[in-house]
Each structure stands twice: as structure tokens, then as C-alpha cells.
Amino acid sequence: MRNLDTGPTIVIGAGLAGLTAAWRLAREGMEVIVVEAEERVGGRAYTAREGWTDGQYTDYGGELVDADYRALIAVCEQVGVELTQPIAYAMPEDDDLSTVEGYLRVGTFVIQGEVLDRASCLAAGRLIRSAAEAHPPTQGEIVEQWILRARLAPREAGIVRSVARMLCQLDPWDCDVHFVFGKPSAGFRRIVGGTQRLAEALADGLDVRLGDPVARVHRYGGVAVETESGASYRGSRVVCATGPYAMAQIGFDPPMVEEKISTVQSLLPAMGGKVIAQYAEGDAIRERFREVVYTDDAFNACWVTMHEATSGPAIVTSFVTGQARHLLGDDDASLARLDELVGQVVDGPVTRLRGEVKNWWADPIAMGVTVTPYDPARPAIAGTLSAMERRTHMAGDYTEGGMAGTLEAAVRSGHRVADEILRTPQRFHIDDINERLARA
Ligand SMILES: Cc1cc2nc3c(=O)[nH]c(=O)nc-3n(C[C@H](O)[C@H](O)[C@H](O)COP(=O)(O)OP(=O)(O)OC[C@H]3O[C@@H](n4cnc5c(N)ncnc54)[C@H](O)[C@@H]3O)c2cc1C
Predict the structure, then answer these.
(1) Do residues 370 and 405 touch, judged by C-beta distance below 8 A?
(2) Interatomic CA distance for residues 55 and 211, integer angstroms
(3) With a 6 A CB cut-off, is 360 part of the ligand 1 pocket?
(4) In this structure, are strands 272-279 and 314-321 parallel, antiparallel, or unpaired?
(5) How much is the pTM?
(6) Tens digits of per-residue pLDDT, 151-163?
């Protein structure tokens, strides 16, 4: 029968969200074209594989896979991508009042320039717990406001700030308490070979056009997607899977609905990047960095990437975000500061073999790390952002509620969009329908 919704689905963006949607649709036999601005797939799933000693690699973007990333873990299984064993970055107990208590049992904390020993960490955990008992946080309270209301001493305040910053990449005056009073992680895994491997596996066999940013999307009748190079793709519908900031750099005709634009504009941007270095003192670093090192310094957290490497040098990855992100403008200063911190934690000088700074904030396409919506408002925000209009489906980590800003949210959004498209009733020519009925 003549399907009146002819033309492929055009997916803009080959990050995990766009690729999950495209992979699902292609598996159902639908025609899909993915148009990607960069010369590679993956977006913020970006693995740096070249030039590290001992064939090691690291992730410039998303890497930690939480135990409840069910959609991502399932997709990894389906496309044959392996995950490492989980590492417990926290040791939560049933009666904990805050996530921080679990992190204090295993993590390393460098607060006010000092590496805290385990006894100090446990003592701080008890003080934070008493503060939470005496001053229970209210839903949606800002972390910094709770710190002040609960009168935390400088050491405990530094600890709470460092954990909050690690979990959302925002400053403590920008994020709400659910990050430090929510459910602790049961253990993080990584994708063996780096996160980009999942993107590459999803893209395998798909029609992906690399290196050509989309400039305009015309949405009259069907859709026509026009790129900066002048290429044009006609389709029956479009999936916009560009990430939150990149989406604002595409001209939609007719424009997106005002509600969606105002919601995007109201999101809290998590800005910054990673400072990454490989050191010769691998064993000492693995020993001290097995779990996350949290700081109240410019680095909000650091850890050893590639946790399947058990010998040789070690790559340390650190996050610099929020107000401290200006440090990323100076590669030498950022790396020297990381050397200093790593040396302090391992208690000896370290030899840097290679260093890299990935400033997502200055990345002309991604333009930021992610967005982290205020928790109580998430369902409404996700509802508005994910809504389909004028044959435009929205995918991306920022369009999902509970897990916004994560690899899991990206994969879930891709599944949601694929479901939307697969469930759309198909329209057939009335003559064909009559003919079919007559034959029946
Ligand atoms: C430093 C950092 C650390 C992180 N750590 C973690 C972590 O440990 N765990 C976790 O769960 N999450 C983490 N994240 C978040 C995670 O990486 C993202 O949530 C996820 O990768 C987003 O996927 P996406 O497909 O929604 O968007 P993206 O990966 O941004 O994909 C969007 C794609 O669209 C393309 N694009 C943009 N504009 C255009 C255009 N005009 N035309 C065509 N293509 C375009 C982009 O090039 C990109 O490929 C981290 C992110 C960063 C940056």
C-alpha cells in the first residue's frame, strides 16, 4: 500500500540518544539517516585512545555507569559491548541519612588542603548525620543553604560541598539537596574500551553522515533538514538529539513552541570539563585512588580511569566545573595543579607522562557538560522538553526526568523517541485501503 508518510526519519546528532533511536528504528526496518556535526560518533561519549602509554585510554566525557542504568546496560548486552566489574565508590548503610555518609566510609577527601584520614572521615560522617537529624533538609532545599542552616563546621561543609559538586557538576549554591540526601550509588562500572565504544557499536551499519552540522529544520508537511554545507535531507519526521545547548543553534521553521524554548532557557547549565593525566607511579595511584578522591579545591573529584588496568602507569581524571572552570583556560596551570593534588594523595612526587585538558564549556558544539534540572521540577521540565511537535521528536539526556544529564537518560530518551515513532499510526491512501478491504 502507498504509505503517505514517506521518507526516512532524519536523526540530528550521533550521541547515545540519537544513535539509540536510530538503531531501534533501523532494527524495525525503517529508513533512518543520522546527520552529525562532528567527524566522529558519540558526542559526549568520547574516548581518547591514542598516545597513552601501555595502550591505555580514557574518557573525555561520560564514563561512570551506575548500577541502575538499566536501559544502557541492556543495550550494551544487545550490541555486545562489555562492562567492567562494579567498583563500590560508596559503602552505604540502611539507616544513613545522607549519601555523604556512604562516600565517607571508602572515599578519600582532601578538604581545606588536607588529606583526611579514615578516622576523621568517619567522625565527619557522624557530625553530618547529627546535623541532618537536627535540621532535616527540606525537599528542594539548596545545598549551600542547608549547610548554613545546619551550621556545619568548615570541614563538614567542605565534604558536603565536594560530594554535591561531584554528583551534579554544579556549585553548591546551584544544586538541591537530593544530590547529597538521595539514594547512594550501589557501584559504578565502565564500558570496556571506553564509552564511545557503545556509540560505535550502535552506529555500526547505520547511515551516518559525519562532519556536517545541521543549520535549519523546515517543518511544513514533511520535514527538510538543511546542513551548513548545503546538503538537504527530506524525511517524514525528524529526531532532534543534539544536546541542550546545541539545540539552540538550529533554526526551526516554523519556530519551536515558546514553552519549550523558555524551559530550555531556564535549565541550570553544568559547565566545565576534565583535566586528565597519566602518571608513571601507577601502583601507588591505583592504591590511593581506587575510590573517588573528593576535594573542595578547583577539582571537585578525581579517580583512576580504566579500572581494568592493574599494572603499569595510571590515568587520573578530574572534574573542574562551576566557578572553578576558569582554570581550564590554562592547560599548564590545570595540569600542574593536578600533579600537586595527586602527589599529595599518594604522599610523594609523581611523574606525568602525558596530560590533556578537555574543556566542554569551550567546545563549540557541545557548549557545556550537561544540564542538571532542579529536582522537584524535573517531571514538568521533562514533559515539556520531550514533547513532540510538528514531526519533531526530542531526544537527549536533558529531555528525561529523574536521570537527566546522564548516559542513561540519553539511552532512555532514544528508546522513548523510537517508541513514539513506532507507535505512530501509519497513513495509507484511501484507494489502497478500499482495494485491500474489497479483496478481504
Ligand atoms: C565531562 C563529562 C563527564 C560526564 N560524566 C558522566 C558519567 O560519568 N556518567 C554519566 O552517566 N554521564 C556523564 N556525563 C553525561 C553524559 O556524557 C551525557 O549525558 C550523554 O553522553 C549525552 O548524550 P546525548 O546523546 O544526549 O548528547 P550528546 O552526546 O551531546 O550528543 C549530541 C550529538 O549531537 C551532535 N550535534 C550537535 N549539534 C549538531 C548539529 N547542529 N547538527 C548535527 N549534529 C549536532 C553533537 O556533535 C553530538 O554528537 C558526562 C558528561 C561530560 C561532558
Answers:
(1) yes
(2) 27
(3) yes
(4) antiparallel
(5) 0.95
(6) 999 999 999 999 9
